[in-house]
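For reference, the entry.
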Amino acid sequence: MAAMFSSMAFASANRIQSLDEIMRQVDKYLTAQYPSSESRRFEFDMRPPDKRLRLPKCLDALTIASIGPKTNVGTLTVRVTCPSPRWEIYVSGRRLV
């Protein structure tokens, strides 16, 4: 019986989108949007989504887009969208130089 509950928990976990993966994709997006140079290095302090959030696993590639003006420092919000099944969340933080 314990094996049945264990396999059910594993199957359920495979249907939930990894919040760590969302944050890796956000980091990859921001690094591409704000490339560092010898004279300027950007860092980001983004707040991860609440760990209690249970989004269905995205079956397609996540789409990430900046919300608001693109400035070198200050607050930053990105929208993370999954096309199938359809959901979106917003991740906020700060851009540091």
